[in-house]
Design a protein that fits this description.
Layout lengths: L11 H39 L4 H16 L2 H16 L5 H27 L2 H9 L4 H31 L11 H12 L2 H33 L2
Helix pairs in contact: 1-2, 1-4, 1-7, 1-8, 2-4, 3-4, 4-6, 5-6, 6-8, 7-8
């Protein structure tokens, strides 16, 4: 005969801790947005280096992409927060260490997304820009890059979703993001089912909102670039 269920559900904990969890949501969003912006910029730079006609530059970009895609975010977070501090004496805050780790990892993936999207732009666009008198920089920034971004948007959005979900890992170094706050509350209230269910709902809501905003952005870009 099976033993009776010993767990006592206490959904009142959700109301008591909602304010702290909401603070965690704000930290998660800030952490994710900053990492996204930095990864978008760094990823584009790495992609352009990867497509450079200069062989050493291409090699450095290739090594960067392979290295930062090969190791898990868990390792990067610990390496930045503990390893760099020990080796250089630079003590990063948990949030800063999390941003650095998320940025370098995701910039490597975004570099490949950019490279694929830039390669998908018809070569005729380059020739048309040159025939109209556009220089290399102006043709890239005003004609080629906007079209590549339109192509890359779905993949970049998926990467942003990964950033939001992966940001929960930074809780291991004491970041008071959504997961960090939740772990603290679970230890305080001993109500893991209720709190982890709520945190799952928060992450699901954030991801669905990102997907909806991305779909609207994609439609707008398609209308603008037709």
């Amino acid at each position: 005969m099976s033993a009776p269920l010993a767990y006592t559900f206490r959904w009142s904990v959700v109301d008591e801790s909602f304010g702290q969890l909401w603070h965690g949501v704000r930290i998660t969003l800030e952490l994710s947005l900053v990492s996204l912006v930095l990864a978008l910029i760094l990823g584009l730079v790495v992609a352009l280096c990867r497509m450079s006609p200069v062989a050493p530059v291409r090699l450095v970009a290739y090594v960067y992409i392979q290295v930062f895609r090969a190791v898990s975010l868990y390792i990067y977070v610990l390496w930045v927060y503990f390893g760099l501090a020990a080796a250089t004496g630079i003590n990063f805050s948990p949030v800063t260490a999390g941003v650095i780790a998320l940025t370098v990892l995701n910039s490597a993936y975004m570099a490949e997304i950019y490279r694929s999207a830039l390669g998908a732009v018809d070569r005729g666009q380059h020739e048309a820009a040159a025939s109209l008198g556009f220089g290399r920089i102006s043709s890239f920034s005003t004609i080629i890059l906007p079209q590549a971004i339109r192509i890359a948007v779905p993949s970049l959005v998926n990467q942003f979703v990964d950033i939001v979900k992966d940001s929960s890992i930074v809780a291991i170094i004491g970041t008071m993001d959504l997961m960090g706050v939740t772990n603290q509350l679970v230890g305080l209230y001993r109500a893991p089912f209720e709190l982890y269910t709520l945190v799952a709902f928060f992450y699901l809501t954030i991801v669905l909102m990102i997907s909806a905003l991305a779909a609207a952005l994609e439609r707008r870009l398609q209308r603008h670039l037709r």
